[in-house]
Amino acid sequence: MSNEIKKINLSHSFIFFLFANIFSLIIFKLNNYNISPLVCLIMILIIGVTHGSHDHIKGKRLFKILNIKQFSFFYLFYILIAILVIIIWILAPLISLLSFLIIASYHFGKEDTQFLINKSSVLNLFLYLFKGFLIILAPLYFHFNETVSIFKFLLVDDEAFYSTLEFIETNKILTIGVILSTLSSIFLFVKEFQIKKFVIFFDYFSILILNYYLSPLVAFTIYFCFLHSIRHGISLIHEIDNLNFVNGLVIFIKKALPLTGLTAILCFMAIFFLNNSFDLNSSILKVIFIGLASLTFPHILLEYLLEKNEKQRN
Question: Which end of the chain has fewer CB within 10 Å, C or N?
Fold first, then answer.
């Protein structure tokens, strides 16, 4: 990753830290003004989903390396994996939820940090995982009952699971989890020490502040859209045009519109059908999290296969 893109990411973390503080305090002063799930969904569709809407471009790179000429197979496999995730979630929601939380934690921890890390190692993989766990642990730590309610909306109906969560909460195990996540951030900071890596703590405190003041859904939406997705988008824009950021941004938006639009249409269709059996907010929550899971699994698999094959090629 170039020094220019690293500087942009550093500035982005600082700006997001300021934004998280200001936005959270405004909402707090407005007596925790309730931002509806529909607003969160629209933000995720407009800003959050776009960072994965260039997967077909990465798919072309992967297929070129693998010498696969029928690119239509990429769309077929991608869609089939997404549909398979939804089917598995319906059949085994608890296993699906736990898998999603673990994989998402690793993905968030890695994507938000690896621009600061020069070398890859097995230890770093675990540090990314524990660092990313803060995205899951913070809402449970500050808003336990509300977060559990979201899990219940996601078709998870397992009393043993919720009893375990209550045991974890009442016995301060959540606190231990937050401490471990904190230590992983500290270790990533001191490992191959550079002062610019202090930006790790901007992201760390931003996540804590958002989850302290805001509801779990709103906190996640702000993080996912304005930290994770924009950071990933910046890297994609730089890949498109590393000399003219504005031109790269314009091309990025144009290329992202078709798949983003299609995703939005499918989401609102899903809400329409779900609304026959559930209330509107419950339907939206299902679409947000189960929908994100169905997109996250093929997205992460593509990232892994592309990174692995490009390293072998080099």
Answer: C
